[in-house]
Amino acid sequence: QVQLVESGGGLVQAGGSLRLSCAASGRTFSSYTMAWFRQAPGKEREFVAAMRWSDDTTYYANSVKGRFTFARDNAKNTVYLQMNGLKPEDTAVFYCAADIYLDDPTVPWHEYDYWGQGTQVTVAS
To answer: How far is residue 34's CA from residue 17's CA, in Å, rounded to a whole number?
Structure first.
């Protein structure tokens, strides 16, 4: 099992930056595909970015490509989401997710086994 704790959310002006962190418990962190999802009010949870456990290949939603960067530090059991050029439409609760030995990080959100509690990101126009 793994427990995930996100941090780093907040209120930022459009065009600004935030870095989200997700700290994971457990001794097999490197075996987990890690991902970020987000959910805006009244909308479905959507994929943002992920890194595959086996080769560190990263995946991004088209809406964030070129603005967000996923990073991973296995020594610290932590993943990060650097978000630059934030837009009001990025406003959402951001969730960290994990699934062991998952080869396709772009599977639907409900296929991920472990979730953090979420962190709010609000982008003011």
So the answer is: 21
What is the SS3 string spanning the chain? Answer: CCCEEEECCEEEECCCCEEEEEEECCCCHHHEEEEEEEECCCCCCEEEEEECCCCCCEEECCCCCCCEEEEEEHHHCEEEEEECCCCHHHCEEEEEEEEECCCCCCCCHHHCCEECCCEEEEEEC
Supply 4's token pair. Answer: 């995930």
pLDDT tens readout for residues 39-55: 999 999 999 999 999 99
Cα gap 49→62, rounded to integer Å = 10
Q: Which residues lie closer than 8 Å to 27 by C-beta, 6 or more apart?
A: none
